[in-house]
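User: Show me a protein chain along with its predicted structure.
Assistant: Here is one chain, sequence first, then structure tokens.
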Amino acid sequence: MKNFHLLAAILIIGALVSCNSELNKDAVSQTTEIIDPLPSWNERNAKSAVFEYIEDVTNPESENFIQISDRIAVFDNDGTIWSEQPAYFQLFFTMDRVKALASEHPEWKEAQPFKAVLENNIDDLAKSGEHGLVELVLASHSGVTEAEFENIVEDWIKTAQHPTKKKPFTDFVYKPMLELLTYLQANDFKTYIVSGGGVDFMRPIISELYNIPSEQIIGSTLKSEYDYNDGSPVIRKLPEMDFVDDKEGKPININKIIGKKPVFAAGNSDGDLAMMQWTASNKLKNFNLYVHHTDSIREWAYDRDSHVGKLDKGLDQAREDGWLVVDMQNDWNTIFIKEN
């Protein structure tokens, strides 16, 4: 009789364990179905393509498996992770910086492109072209230490607002792209920002915002000099360009700083095309993604004829080579981290 009760108890416990196991399996299954790493992406081909690639290259049993040490992902910033219209956000910082320094430079009242900035004459500023914009950056970003410049940027971003939307610039970060960054990071991809923007402008703003360490943010740089400064060493920014991290400069900097070809690249313009081509040449299975600005209602619609973020040759090669072109209007159910 004792053995009978013992056997019955064992059977009951086994049944309960089995039942709980089945319940746990159901719970896990339901949880798996509920958790979506890309909830701001609509259930379309773009989202499926991202999932399929990540699942394939992180599967040890797949012939396309990529070792963690080779999982390098590079992202452009302007127009790819945050907006860039009606001009790059760093330009607005530069204009505000020129105005703040104007009292120390009375000659700027009559000298272009500074005169255009002080008079808020965007047409004349545009006429100065790339040379004029570089001149503004050199004058407004130099003459201070790296630490001083970082503080200036941090103070500016706290109060600065988009000129037409009248909201903080940080509101215009793309939620779907932040989700993508997080998804890649969760799958052991080392994520880098590789942008034409100034590295010293980006680091104080986007490192925490994107959860990317400052040393993994690559951008254009001014020349600088070391000053021992009586035992309190500083790095001073000089009014001379060091490196422009755009177009062909992107793969050059990737090779110099990262030292490996990426397997994943995201951009939005012809300025990113060389970076995409470099990534596509990786013998490991790779993935290129272009953000196509097609939503004139929630953001802006532009590509081939835009004065900012022109996407022309890149769009053609993406379609020819089968790179993913994300249709912002149709592929994203949410655009910004804070809806406007």
